[in-house]
Specification:
Two copies of one chain form a homodimer.
Chain A lengths: L1 E3 L2 H13 L4 E6 L5 H13 L2 E6 L9 H5 L5 H10 L4 E3 L3 H4 L7 E3 L8 H4 L3 H16 L3 E5 L3 H14 L4 E5 L19 H6 L2 H14 L5 H13 L4 E9 L15 E9 L10 E9 L14
Parallel strand pairs in A: 1-4, 2-3, 2-6, 3-4, 6-7
Antiparallel strand pairs in A: 8-9, 9-10
Chain lengths: 302, 302
């Protein structure tokens, strides 16, 4: 496994691999690798001859500096996991390699970045779109793989890749969960044990919505009520948002659900009373499928 | 010579050329090709095995819709000129090939786009940076060639290519002039004959500044006065801007000139009194070199 720190070296290697007919799949990460990332590496192995992982904690996508400084970093451990997973190249650029000028050029993702997390985290998706564009230009891969847990990120990147015309395919990897259902995230390690136990409220809320839908519920507000009621059972939880929207455009779902609908959740978990520490913000989501024997007038589009 | 209309076809051809070891130079244009463009094609031939020209009138860089609708279009003639100049591929995409989604992704070029033309033409360089990024992703060339007449465009694109990390080199081509000194431009054809004669005021103003500098003038304001006095001799001329600035950052030059300095001009030429028609905006520039035997305390940086 090669560890590469400069864009120029990565581009030279990409040219060589491409000229030899080998395909490359890139898995962009911010490090602190867990089973979710490793499932993306597996996905990459299925598609391409070479699997490259980038590890770069991107300052431009943090709207909160204490969130950036507190983001977990574990490079030695990450490299070990990559080696064990059969990764061919790990790209670990320094900050000034990715942001060379004081006057930056931004990739602005448009209205799709204004929904959901875009409202809570101003500038976040501009930072994501910009660093992903740079990583794609650095690695020049045939595929890039992103997890579906960051669903809006995946949609924003798909849109950017289509709009700017990158010559590659974006692949989404299914959410990986702990045995109790909590979606894997580097942020889970920052939860107080008590908050960690309550954090299963997210997946329970997704399940509650799915159950309601399967029982025939089509009213968006009543569906959301079952979601928020489930989350309210966790005393340390504070909802940032719980929304139903179109999984392609992220626009709010209609009052009466017709098509497959994204249920997206962002929830803060506070430390227990009397305990010092920052709240930890977790996200989770599920694309709710309406039953195929639906008798609704409007048929699903996909 | 091949004429290609889709990004996918161009990317496939680029991959094939690159894999075979051939180098590609792209000359992006908006058509209405003249000797200035053809000099860029010559420059491209000197550097690369294959010369590709793109012809696309980019709506996103027009801040004025009548300017867009009146922009000269002459595809048959352009293709003939490309053929005669030994161009290998002409890329002529339709508008929805380059802008596929209603919600666009923009490349925002930062503060460097706020100076000079950026002040007169809001959004212009965002449109330029975005379309150039798309063309570079479509052609995947080793070189891209831009004329120095659009000096700020060249600087904005160099900055974007550096910031985003495109794997290619940007080349600048020297300004080509008519026998009387007017810089070649597709807009020259729109000048009333009387305005056309007066349009040499731009190059005379550049010459006046160079002469003043060679006579030892280092005061920026007095130098600019010699520039505006020269332009004022043309009754149909209306100055949009006449500025001295750093040729790398485009920041305003110091009151006392020290280093090589860009003199950038934008001047409207009105039709003569009583004649119908729009004003035509022309630009021109020169990087003024301070004499190498300068005794100034601050040495030129380049």
């Amino acid at each position: 496994m090669r560890v590469i720190e400069t864009i120029a070296e990565l581009q030279t290697l990409s040219d060589r691999e491409r000229a030899s007919g080998a395909t490359i799949a890139l898995v962009p990460t911010m490090g602190a690798l867990h089973g979710g990332h490793l499932s993306l590496v597996d996905e990459a192995h299925k598609r391409a001859d070479r699997v490259w992982v980038s590890i770069f904690v991107n300052p431009a996508q943090f709207d909160d500096t204490s969130d950036l400084s507190g983001y977990p970093r574990s490079l030695d451990n990450d490299l070990e996991r990559c080696r064990a997973a059969g990764v061919d190249v790990v790209f670990t650029p320094a900050s000034d390699e990715m942001y060379p000028a004081a006057d930056p050029t931004w990739v602005e993702p448009g209205e799709i970045a204004q929904f959901l997390c875009g409202r809570s985290r101003p500038g976040h998706f501009r930072g994501v779109a910009t660093i992903v564009a740079k990583l794609l230009l650095a690695a020049k891969p045939h595929y890039a793989v992103f997890g579906e847990k960051d669903f809006q990120q995946l949609v924003v990147i798909r849109r950017m890749v289509c709009n700017l015309g990158f010559d590659l395919q974006i692949l989404g990897g299914a959410i990986v969960r702990e045995p109790d259902g909590l979606a894997l995230s580097s942020r889970n390690a920052k939860l107080h044990p008590q908050a960690r136990r309550q954090a299963t409220a997210l997946v329970r809320a997704l399940d509650a919505a799915q159950s309601a839908l399967e029982s025939g519920e089509r009213d968006a507000l009543r569906l959301l009520h079952s979601v928020t009621a489930e989350i309210a059972k966790a005393p340390l939880a504070r909802i940032d948002y719980a929304e139903l929207c179109d999984p392609h455009t992220l626009e709010p779902a209609p009052a009466r659900l017709r098509d497959s609908t994204l249920l997206a959740l962002a929830v803060f978990f506070d430390p227990p009373a009397g305990v010092e520490g920052d709240a930890v913000r977790l996200i989770d989501n599920r694309v709710l499928q309406l039953r195929s024997d639906s008798h609704d007038a409007d048929r699903p589009r996909d």
